[in-house]
Amino acid sequence: MTLVQGRDGSPGDYLEVAETLTEFGSRVSVDLRQLWRRIAFSVAIHNTDDHLRNHGFLRDGASGWRLAPAFDINPNPDAGAQRLTGIGGAHGRGDELTGLMAYAESFRLTAEESRQVLHEVLAGVAGWQEVALSNGVPATELPRFEEAMEGLRSAMAELAD
């Protein structure tokens, strides 16, 4: 949060994180692409608690900063919940996919590359129910997440094609 110059409780935007990586990063293209993939994953699982404290950087010697491994990523069963960190100003379910695709170039992805990443993310989350069950989530809890997760992934699949 400090490197991005964010303030606790203030809304952030992934474009600010991208600008920070561009200015201070040691592996800018790799990290920008990885960040976009993480955003796509967060959208796919409806992770809305994505405030700037949940995005970190690691010092890479004298060459700058790199994106830290992802952490604190949780699906939100409330389909109407808005994300805490915007995607080009988009915070809600109705506009986050538009923001994701509109700003792919800011993360150094072509339209074709962004569609490929969406396909990969969708394939990775396709079996979320089995993963949840294998990690001890009771089957009775799965329906709580269905609307939030399935609707977004259907919309993402349309964008990926």
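[next item in queue]
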Amino acid sequence: MHTNSEFRFDGGATWLNLLATRGQSFGSRPVERLATIEAAEHWLSAIGFPPRDAVTTDDLAHLVQLREALRDLAMAAVALRAPTRNALSHVRAVASAHTALDFADIAERGAETDDALSAIAVQALVTLNGPDRALLKECAEVDCRWVFLDTSGRRQWCPSPACASRGRVRAHRARQSAASRS
């Protein structure tokens, strides 16, 4: 696995953008964008939860653990199957710690990492239990398979131009191969 600190914020919701912090998740060389405490601090700041205190290695581990549990729930929703019990239990536990947030205070003094994680988990559960669940789509690129909100209803690939390009090239080659066999 290699690392890259370039974050994606085009998944349609913060919890889906968290999934994109591990790119090419199903390929031979996944890209870990939350490989360091500094990367986690940067990502949390970018989503509007600048850390009040320094992010710890435990905070980073909890963020990654939440991401993977959310990935399981998102992929289960798209596939119309039940998520794993562990993933669902974990997300529910993180969400249950949610409290009302004072965004003026967060803007001034920063946020507790646990508050950010619980807000993300709550957002995911609202999406997964509401009408936006029908808008979830999985990228057709086999190495990516990022789940995103498709408000157009027509997208095959995630917002990454690379996935769309690879998908179109793969489809073109398959058509050429089929035509040459005919």
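[queue empty]
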